[in-house]
Amino acid sequence: MKHFYKSFALAIGVALAITGAASAQTKVGFVYVGPIGDHGWTYEHHQGLKAVERAFGNKVKTKHVENVSEGPDAARVVQQLARGGHDIIFTTSFGFMNPTLKVAKQFSKINFEHATGYKRAKNVSTYSARFYEGRHVIGLIAGKMTKTNTIGYIASFPIPEVVRGINAAYLAAKSVNPQVKFKVIWVSTWFDPGKEADAANALIDQGADILMQHTDSPAAMQIAEKKGIHAFGQASDMIKFGPNAQLTAIINNWGPYYVARVKATMDGTWKSGDVWDGIKEGMVTMAPFSKKIPEDVRTMVAKARDDIAAGKLHPFTGPINKQDGSPWLKAGETAPAGDLLGMNFYVEGVEGSLPK
Amino acid sequence: MDLLVLVLQGVIIAATPLVFAAIGELVVEKSGVLNLGVEGMMIMGAIAGFSVTLETGSYILGIASAALVGALSASLFGLLTQILLSNQVATGLALTIFGLGLAALWGQGYSGESTQALGKVHIFLFSDIPIIGPLFFSYDPLIYLSVALVIGVSWFLNKTRLGLILRSIGENHDSAHAIGYSVVAVRMAAILFGGACAGLGGAYLSIIQTPLWVEGMTAGRGWIALAIVVFAAWRPGRALIGAYLFGGVTVIQLHVQGLGFEIEAQYMSMLPYLVTIIVLVVISHNKTRAALHAPACLGKPFFASS
Questions:
Q1: What pLDDT shows up at residue B10?
Q2: Using CA atoms, how far apart are residues A267 and A356, in angstroms rounded to an integer?
Q3: Are B96 and B36 in contact (CB under 8 A)?
Q4: CA–CA distance, A242 with A281 (Å, rounded to integer)
Q5: What is the pLDDT of residues B243-262, one digit of tens each?
Q6: Is A240 in contact with B112 (Cβ distance < 8 A)?
Q7: How far is A158 from chain B (nearest CA, A)?
Q8: Using N-to-C axis directions, what is the helix angle for B59-78 and B88-106, rounded to 10°?
Q9: Residues of chain B whose pLDDT is less than 50?
Q10: Which of residues 268-297 of B touch A (CB under 8 A)?
Q11: Mean pLDDT (whole number) for A210-229
Q12: Under CATH, which number does the domain A19-130+254-277 receive?
């Protein structure tokens, strides 16, 4: 009997030691839609993971799963991370929204963070960046620099995020060049370098001399470099793929947010919320402006960027009509957040119809 | 007219990886083996071609090693299915998954790098003819190689003794074995050839079409190549047409959108697959004719009883 007590106490001691060691480390999980090597969207989320590791060192243990397709597979992966005892899990693509919520319901002690979504729960936060502020800046540059007055736009899926980008870039380009036209091609994928390259070629063949993209690979940038035209980097700085072609890039900078949320989880102060930060907070940054941009244009867009950061300029400021001519914003009115988050229409002047 | 020429050029470039992969798989299937690992072999070829081209600066070395690595990946499949008699479907699927993973591992240090795209061949006088010049004589050498390969395979299968042996093994391996042909040796050769072609298809993507390495860059093209073989009813000429049709629908739908036609993009993306399904239904509605097209021993394991 004595032996029994001894071993029992020992077992408890060991168990306590194990749980003690486990709770000293905060486990952070990440779910990526693409490969880290995409040099775009997923790459930047992974930079965020690295920022977390740098900030907390041994106090965190991170785990990431890449190439997770949007759908039933996502729920399985999120669930696995949750079962694996992660304290906070970041799911970094729009299509992970419902799987994240489903799993979050079963694991009420775990904090979930879903990027670019709009559904929240007690333990599910959403966060996104105001990429459209960056789109405004590149729209201005494109409008000023196009010679054929044709801008090519490679779009992925007709979700509000992407539609907002097209509208923001178009309005900005139009404001400095009334003749400008946007050609939009939907490739129905986030990541297929071959198809993105085909789309880039098609746009150039149809007269576009500046390309914008809302897909994740640097293929379009390479085509622009090869054909001697200009393009803008998407999600990451793509200057390596287009040393002459890239005018600037919209960079997603998730690090500071991830560090703050992991910190809150450690301190027990984490609360569900919704964050939508932009240039001002540093969640969206611009790559250095190319020397190919004329001096006066560079000054103008740098000012626009700084005005956005200072809150003096809103890319969606009325009067703006919808594509069918019906009024959306009155003169001087800025777009309400709800309209922006659920944007499912083109603004007046954009050609073509929005896929449903 | 200029736009039309540009569109057709785009079609041929987009279709070439499919031509390579499909013609290789066609020979494999003609010998009676079903290798579902095309996607895996393609991506192995893509990373091999890209990394060697980047390290050595030589396109010829890059393309050769893509073919070699493709054949090596295929040899693994050959070893497992022909000698160890594992299930072909399962082994092929495993090869795809293995290839995608191994290529990602190999390519870790190469993402973010880029090479110069391989230039076009200028054919004296011919390249300068209006319309005909840009349409037929303005491509990189691999495109000509892909067409030559299709012609060569067609000649080999239909006009040579060895081609006849390969086909007879695909139709009835027991009879071929009884006459004294080495079923396993011929099938191994076909599998290696299929792997080399798939590797070339991958290299075309990573060296020429988009000279960069990113994980998963073949994006399902290996599966389309498999569909093209069935679509072509195992005939090389039709495989070429099938690949161009697939490439054509992909590229033309992009142009149609750019020109502002009011067609939903999703329908256009579906079109290549719809066409395949329709063709499959049409060629298989008559059971006897369908049986004539497909190699009779396709996918069946061969076990020499004596």
A1: 87
A2: 44
A3: yes
A4: 28
A5: 998 888 888 888 888 777 76
A6: yes
A7: 10
A8: 140
A9: none
A10: 269
A11: 93
A12: 3.40.50.2300
Residues contacting A57, CB < 8 A, separation 6+: none
**H or E stretch including B61?**
helix B59-78
Collapsing DSSP to helix, strand or coil, A115 comes out as: strand
Closest by Cβ to A355, choosing from B219, B251, B265: B265
52-91 of A, contacting B, C-beta below 8 A: 67
> In chain A, what are the domain boundaries?
19-130+254-277, 131-251+283-341
Instruction: Tell me whether A187 touches chain B (CB under 8 Å).
Output: yes
Structure tokens belonging to residue B113? 């790098």
Give the model's pLDDT for residue A113.
96
pLDDT reported for residue A5 = 55
CB pairs under 8 A between A and B: 116
Of B11, B35, B3, B14, the C-alpha closest to B190 is: B35
Q: Which residues in chain A have Cβ-Cβ distances shorter than 8 Å to B251?
A: 198, 202
Which residue type does B60 have?
I
Tell me the C-alpha distance between A218 and A233, whole Å.
Answer: 8
- CA-nearest residue to A351 within chain B is B260
3-state class of A346 per DSSP? coil
Compare all CA atoms of chain A with the CA of B4 and give the residue at the minimum distance.
Answer: A205
Interior angle at CA B84, CA B83 and CA B88, nearest 5 = 95
How many Å apart are CA B123 and CA A46, to the nearest integer?
A: 47
A positions 189-208 inside 8 Å of B (CB): 189, 191-199, 201-203, 205-206
Which among B143, B144, B151, B21 has a CA at the least distance from the CA of B74?
B21
**All structural domains of chain B with their residue ranges:** 2-293
Q: Give the closest of B6, B114, B215 to A222, CB-based.
A: B114
A213: DSSP letter: E
Q: Cβ distance A259 to A55 under 8 Å?
A: yes
Quote the tokens at residue B294.
């497909």
Q: Which of A148, A150, A186, A205 to mutate to test the interface with B (most CBs of B within 10 A)?
A: A205
Segments in B110-235 forming alpha helices (H): 132-136, 141-159, 161-171, 173-179, 183-203, 221-231
The reply to whether A19-130+254-277 and A131-251+283-341 are identical in fold is yes
Cα–Cα distance measured from residue B10 to residue B236, given in angstroms and rounded to the nearest whole number: 22
Measured between its terminal Cα atoms, the distance across chain A in Å is 73
Cβ neighbours of A35 in B, within 8 Å:
104, 214-216
ipTM of the modeled complex:
0.78
Q: Which residues of A touch B216 (CB under 8 A)?
A: 34-35, 67, 191
Query: Sheet holding A210-213: strands in order across?
Result: A181-186, A150-155, A210-213, A230-235, A246-252, A284-286
B133/A contact by beta carbon, under 8 A: no
**Do A193 and B6 count as a contact with CB atoms less than 8 A apart?**
no
Kindly report the CATH number that applies to the domain delimited by A131-251+283-341: 3.40.50.2300
Whether residue A137 has pLDDT greater than 90: yes
β-strand pairing of A60-65 with A88-91: unpaired
- Please answer yes or no on whether B214 and A38 come within 8 Å at the CB atom: yes
DSSP-assigned states of every residue in A25-91: SEEEEEE-SS-GGGSSHHHHHHHHHHHHHHHHGGGEEEEEE-SPPTTHHHHHHHHHHHHTT-SEEEE
> For the structural domain made of B2-293, what CATH number should be given?
1.10.3470
